[in-house]
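Table 4 source record.
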Amino acid sequence: MITRLRQRLVADERGSNAAEIVIIAPVIAMLVLVLVAGGRTALADNATQSAAYAAARAASLSRDASTAVTNAEDAARRAMSQSGITCTTLTVSVDASGLNTAIGTTGTVSAAVNCDVSLADITLPGIPGSRTMSSSAASPVDAYRERG
């Protein structure tokens, strides 16, 4: 009697593994895509912060405002390419007014970096096609350095 009952219970579970996989596989795939999107966003945010610091530092080492802007943009682009992050749009804004202070006074140069990161290849509801990462940094200008 017990053997017959056990056989009936086992027989009723045939095909349940396939049904479980059909239900669980999309959930696991969505979880993986969410993790990929989160990882890509975190890496892009770190790269944007690094690019902003590099841009501010490069601008603070310049002697005049026009050179500071050029050096900052180059440094930001170099930092982003070294990090392996590809921006659909990369914008670098530099405030080089700290280079116009008189010698003997400390000035500050700041840089802001905006990077649009594409998430279009991650097709998941609720995840936008792109995300804008923004970061800013400031760097002091040497008070006794000659300025142009």
